[in-house]
Amino acid sequence: xxxxxxxxxxxxxxxxxxxxxSPFWRFFGYFWQFHCWPDHLLSCITAILRASSPPFAAMxxxxxxxxxxxxxxxxxxxxxAALEAFRVDYLGKKGKLTALSGGxxxxxxxxxxxxxxKLNEVRDAITxxxxxxxxxxxxxxxxxxxxGIDITLPGRPGAGVGSLHPLTQIRDLAVRxxxxxxxxxxxxxxxxxxxxxxxxxNTPTDHPARNESDTFYMPDGKLLxxxxxxxQVRTMESAKTLPVRIIAPGAAYRRDExxxxxxxxxxxxxxLYVDTDVSLADLKGTLEYFFREVFGPTTVVxxxxxxxxxxxxxxxxxxxxxxxxxxxxxxxxxxCGMVDPAVFAEISKxxxxxxxxxxxxxxxxxGMGLDRLAMIxxxxxxxxxxxxxxxxxxxxx
Length: 397
Ligand code: DAH
Fold this sequence. Notes:
The protein folds into two domains: 2-144; 166-394, Bira Bifunctional Protein, Domain 2 (BirA Bifunctional Protein, domain 2, 2-Layer Sandwich). The chain is 45% helix and 17% strand. The chain has helices at 2-5, 23-34, 39-52, 54-76, 80-91, 96-101, 112-146, 166-180, 194-197, 230-238, 280-295, 341-351, 370-378, 385-388, 391-394; strands spanning 184-185, 191-192, 223-224, 244-253, 265-275, 300-308, 311-321, 329-339, 362-369. Strand 7 and strand 8 form a beta hairpin. The longest helix has 35 residues, at 112-146. It binds 3,4-dihydroxyphenylalanine.
């Protein structure tokens, strides 16, 4: 191997731009490439070459003076506009530091690292000096904003105590009503697995709800639950005994365009009742009672056959409501049905026991949107009012 037999110093070749070299240095460089100089002498020469490389030396001193100039200027500035002008002047795209850093092109490759570090040091010094000034200015502003306020004075009467959000009110009413009927509260995560949200609920892989355009998926394959029905699954997965009788209010997420009737985050309440003898009559009775509690004792409820993957038979529930001065009309309000045996089978497979044996247990489930319930109850025409926190809207409830 040719390289191995050579003295190490013969392999060090410093390439300098010819235009930057005086005839002396050119000769010196030529001499250097072909003769074996002792190592320590070589590093001495390298140091001399570095220091005398014109763009390198000039840039370092220009950077140093820019730093001193900037930090001195900073001390004299005392308002936000002046500080912003300073920022643009030094750090902006057309600022002094950016202009200087353009000189990097002239610096020989082996010196770039050093000049670059200097450039960063100066930029950091100016940036942090500016931040300190801005923070001091803000602190002074904050102090003067509260100066003269006597925090020991008693509060002004009539400022109002606020009230519960209409959604909170309707949720509390729903929970109160269902708890009276023996349902207990259950909970589950909003970031769910596909199994809990879809597979265990007998929803096939090609169901449109599982599409990326309808559901928010996480990079790890989990998703933001599209309905609170996943809490049914979690409850049955961990139940110790029968009956299971739960309700689960909570948020659900869908990739819907936001408009007067859709939000991508909304609220539902879910119910599940499983035992050895739960019937459709129980489902109807429970829901009729529930809606009469919510909308008044004369409310008429209708069960319309429908399809949900997790219940069989399934229904949509409409209530007949009359808005003031208008003819009564049917309004679709919830989904429900008898738990599909396929759901019990999947739960049993996961649990590895027969507490939810599809041959032995039956159950009903229902779910509804709380936002929709609030809109219907209060005649709210745009669902977005519920999240805008406009006091003029909220004061009405
Ligand atoms: N999960 C359904 C939805 O989000 C609502 C629903 C329908 C829930 C039927 C149920 C049910 O528990 O049995 O549209």
